[in-house]
Design brief:
metal ion binding, iron-sulfur, about 35% helix, binds pyridoxal-5'-phosphate, 15 helices, Aspartate Aminotransferase, domain 2, single chain
């Protein structure tokens, strides 16, 4: 508790900072708030920030920011359907951040003046907003640089804390690289890791999880929504299996962690109802800024972990370093909007997802949807187009920003390890595209994308000798190809 806080009300007269040229440039008339807070009606503009000076308005008042890509394709730019890689920032988030970049630049850990207090207030407000989105207490939230850091902190931190008694970790084969690589690192340090397989639709088997649990298991880390195929793991059932195992065996319960970078703000998550002990969150997947995220680390019963970063003891000593107040405020606002608009976002995204899938299926044959349609997040649609090379598809679809497999691995031509884990053949894995639909995607964009897919797949198949053979009724799986 800040010992000076009681004095704040008395001391904190409104900050009136001398306006610099830069600060003046950010002042806009009140009427522009309408566009900043109503992205649905905002106009499309390449230049997101218009600058006007109005001396009558006090800082900060908001900024005239256009919603990204609303209303169709922005001139000269590809249609953005790569929402799992990152989301465009919601203009309301920029509004929430700007005062902390300009006027309220204090260090949130400064205890002796109003600059510090107001930055601290912004950080604590964000902590509550993030906590509220996942049904947690504000004190359970630790701000980090993103989900990669949160995953590293929780996985390595829990493993190291318990290492004298427990050295076994369970995860799945389809986790994000930052989880797999954290586990791989731990296995070089004397830990044992079980990588659970997944079924053909990407779901883990609860029986296999049950069989893998051991008295020396300290951590089970299973992602909430997969970033390549959108499959939603049954978090509540997973935590129930872990709890039951500990009860039956009379051992302390392994910590249940979930990487929820693709789930938070998109589907309802309640850490208490789902029995989640620790969770990773990313700002830039929920229309917030890049470079910020959060780790949910339960305090009751307490999840114990060793920090990765040592220093000033900020964030309960789990993540030292000055909290990045502007982007943390952005994460908080992104969480607030996600909580308020989740159902509307979901309905909008589901309708567009159906439109895409139905549009493609009606006009293109031999398309396979990877993942589990019944247990999937609709904003992540992964399709394999048989007899077409995914890279050629991507090249031909230059007017659509897409990914084949995970953004982090698409630089390599290795087939996606996630699709391989589902049992997809190399050919089908190579012919897959991931369509990421989001809050600002429009019907017009989806219709244009369907049209382009039909054109491109048809053209590429016409050039494919394999496709010609399939058209002639030859079962190409039976062909024995000569080796050279
Ligand atoms: C499932 C999942 N976990 C973790 C990450 C890493 O998130 P960040 O970019 O915030 O470090 C990503 C990003 O692609 C992801 O999709």
């Amino acid at each position: 508790m800040n010992p000076l806080r009681p004095l704040r009300a008395a001391l904190a007269t409104p900050l009136r900072v001398q306006r610099t040229r830069a600060a003046r440039a950010l002042v806009v008339p009140r009427r522009s708030l309408a566009t900043a807070t109503a992205p649905a009606s905002a106009s499309v503009s390449d230049k997101h920030v218009d600058v006007e000076v109005d001396e009558d308005v006090e800082l900060p008042v908001g900024f005239k920011v256009s919603a990204p890509n609303r209303g169709g394709q922005t001139a000269g730019r590809p249609i953005y359907l790569d929402m799992q890689a990152t989301t465009p920032m919601d203009p309301r988030v920029l509004d929430a951040m700007m005062p902390l970049f300009t006027e309220q630049y204090g260090n949130p850990h400064s205890r002796t003046h109003a600059y510090g207090w107001e930055a601290e207030d912004a950080v604590e407000k964000a902590r509550e907003q993030v906590a509220s989105l996942i049904g947690a207490g504000a004190k359970d939230i630790v701000f980090t640089s993103g989900a990669t850091e949160s995953n590293n902190l929780i996985i390595k931190g829990v493993a190291n804390f318990h290492k004298s008694k427990k050295r076994h970790i369970i995860t799945t084969q389809t986790e994000h690289k930052c989880v797999l690589d954290s586990c791989r690192f731990l296995s070089t340090q004397g830990f044992e890791v079980t990588y659970l397989p997944v079924g053909p639709t990407g779901l883990v088997s609860l029986d296999e999880l049950k069989a893998a649990l051991r008295p020396d298991t300290s951590l089970v880390s299973i992602m909430a929504v997969n970033n390549e195929i959108g499959v939603i793991q049954p978090l509540g059932e997973i935590s129930a299996v872990i709890k039951q195992y500990a009860k039956d065996q009379g051992v302390s319960k392994p910590i249940f962690h979930t990487d929820a970078a693709q789930a938070v703000g998109k589907i309802h998550i309640d850490v208490d109802a789902m029995g989640i002990d620790a969770m990773s969150i990313s700002g830039h997947k929920i229309y917030g800024p890049k470079g910020v995220g959060a780790a949910y680390v339960r305090r009751r019963p307490r999840v114990r972990l060793e920090p990765l970063i040592h220093g000033g003891g900020q964030e309960r000593g789990l993540r030292s370093g000055t909290v990045a107040a502007p982007i943390v405020a952005g994460l908080g606002e992104a969480a607030r909007i996600a909580q308020e608009e989740m159902d509307a976002d979901h309905a909008h995204i589901k309708a567009l997802s159906d439109r895409l899938i139905n549009g493609v299926n009606a006009q293109v044959s031999h398309v396979v949807r990877n993942g589990d349609a019944d247990h999937g997040y609709p904003g992540c649609v992964n399709l394999s187009f048989a007899y077409v090379e995914g890279e050629s598809l991507l090249m031909a679809l230059k007017d659509v920003a897409l990914s084949s497999g995970s953004a982090c691995t698409s630089a390599s031509l290795e087939p996606s390890y996630v699709l391989r884990a589902l049992g997809a053949t190399d050919d089908m894995a190579h012919s897959s595209l991931r369509f990421g639909i989001g809050r600002f995607t429009t019907e017009a964009e989806i219709d244009l994308v369907v049209k382009r897919i039909v054109q491109v797949v048809t053209r590429l198949r016409e050039m494919s000798p394999l496709w010609e053979m399939v058209q002639d009724g030859i079962d190409i799986s039976k062909i024995e190809w000569a080796a050279h």
